[in-house]
Specification:
Elements (H helix, E strand, L loop, with lengths): L9 H51 L12 H19 L6 H17 L3 H50 L9 H8 L7 H31 L4 H25 L1 H16 L9
Helix pairs in contact: 1-2, 1-8, 3-8, 4-6, 4-7
Length: about 280
Amino acid sequence: MSYGNAPRGGRSGGKGGASKKTNRKKKQEFHRHRQQPRGEGEQDADQLRSRVVASLENLGHQRLSTEPGGYDLQSWIRSFDSLLDDFEAKVGSSLFSEGYRQRRQTATAELSAAADLSTADRRIGELRARKAGAVNALAERKQGISARIGAIDSEVERLNAEATNASGDGEEPKKQPSFFRRLFGGGQNPSEDQVRSAEIASRVETLKAERASLEQDLERVDSSTEGPAQELVQIEAELATAEAERERTLQISEERERLAGEFSKMVAELPLGPAEK
């Protein structure tokens, strides 16, 4: 066998050179391929941050429900925590400072403390009890006056019937100007029926005067400028103020807006790497 004419490293050497070039090209392509997802990840992280910032701003302006089972403060806190938990998990927890972590721990606790309704509920309970007492007192007073007016009407009706029976003419007793003149000025003594009729007439006039006075009292009871009705108006005004304050405490809209804005700013200023998959 003769190897003298074959160039050293001839055919096999040529194949080896081509293989090295191919390997270098593949490595370059591989590195370029590895670098590209990092850029996409950073872009994804920026988009994620923008969505979180917008969501925090929306949270800051949400209105809470006062209905049982509605979207209350605890629901709002869960939305707030879930939003930030998801963001931290996707961009990597290592990016967040210790100050951020401590602030997260205290933030929602401050909201819960600010939304303590025990003082407001106690005040509202006291005012409602006072209102119920004032309403009952007012009703009792009106009922007492009305009952007395009804009793007067019944008494007048009874006296008129008695006077009619005493006179025997079927008519209400009439005033007799000459009666007392005859009684004290001499002349014929009045009969027993005449004396009784005069007593009844005097009593009826007294009762009618009392009834007129009671009707005025009844009008004053219904007036909101004096007496129990005025007290009731004052209590209702205090109650409306207390309930409005409770609603403000329940909403704590300023506190929630401030907190959401604070974390929105922290998220917007956070230096990001690529989002984690």
